[in-house]
Amino acid sequence: MRDGGRISAAIEILADLETRRRPVQDALKDWGLTHRFAGSRDRSAIGNLVYDVLRRRASLGAIMGNDDPRALVFAAYALQWGKGLDGLAAAADPADRHAPAPPTPAEAAALTAATLPDDADIATRADLPGWLVPSLARVFGDRLETEGRALAARADVDLRANTLKADRDAVLADLAGAGAIAATWSPVGVRVPVGPGDEKAPHLVSELSFKRGWFEVQDEGSQLAALVAAEALGPAAAGSVVIDLCAGGGGKSLALAAALGDAGRILAYDNDKRRFGDILDRIARSGASGIEVLDPGRGDPLAPLAGSADLVVVDAPCTGTGTWRRRPDAKWRLAPGALEMRREQQRGVLGAAAQLVRPGGTICYITCSVLPEENEDQVAAFLAARRDFRLEDTAAALGRVAARPLPETTRVPLGAGTAARLTPHATGTDGFFIARLRRAD
Ligand SMILES: C[S@@+](CC[C@H](N)C(=O)[O-])C[C@H]1O[C@@H](n2cnc3c(N)ncnc32)[C@H](O)[C@@H]1O
Q: Where does S-adenosyl-L-methionine bind (predicted)?
């Protein structure tokens, strides 16, 4: 396919997303199934265009003075991809029957000016949902626009070297051809930068070293969160009992097992067993022997564990606002009701975690959200209700596990302790919030 056909496909997919209001992966997959002539490079270029539009839907629409899919895709191609009006006009070649109609004079004028209206509000400038601006301003203050823009950029591919099977240098050497570099903060992190425009993201899970368990795909922020959790156990980690209460596909369980040198007993639980996905295969590949998956369908597997865990990791269900770079459609689909539902679930899992942790043990509360309602507010409410817990200096713990000193903005003072916050702007990671809560002896 030539670029004209790819542009038309992106327009079609975005229109489909608008009318049927469904996840972008589903729309892209369906398009691929009904257009089998499109090769993998075409599908990936089309996917890039669709995702780039979704990341910056508000600002591109304001630049164009029009937010229909055609205007948005034209803006992404000409401006974000740097093709310019000339490149777009060449792609919209009337001789190519798959190409869109050439830019109209109004579209051409908007693309030439390429500026936001003077009165564009912060939600438009920073590509944020308007209803969340007050919450995000509470967290970011005068950095809101910069943080919003960073949340609207493309994200690199992050890997965690699985130190149970290989060290980071071995992974770096193995993936040198893909452009792998050492991550900035995570001592076990490897980053594979993604290119601009139509460049295809590397398909690293087809590497033999992946199948051998040398690495997992995991955002650097998620790696750091697991390291902060594991650090709570101190040098006496061997034989400790860790409950990964919201284990999902097991990303944190696997990282915890590696961080503990497979010396702890990790119990991976999720109240929805469909969320486990291929967790058993992942555990087998990782070489970890200390992870046990608890089936929520078999009675109450947590009941016998009450008051026994040295560490309970609560990788809480959340709105995922910190992952908007990777899931930009979620940014515009998120509604106040969903935030409220997540808050309710978070209160529930924190309460359950408090039942499981032993006196002197730790809860590590983690979200991949940057909203204070899911982070600071939840921790403050928990501490107000549970006087037997105190917030540790989580930011200092993050500093101890990180490979180099972190920006000051990662430190979130909260009462007598601190939480830690990672963001695409501050740390080049997904947005994460981490708070370590220690139960009194
Ligand atoms: C952020 S995801 C977990 C991601 C996973 N820890 C990882 O690193 O790959 C949150 C998970 O919490 C689970 N969950 C929601 N409410 C729960 C509850 N009350 N008890 C246990 N798990 C719950 C969801 O099913 C979901 O899989």
A: 270, 315
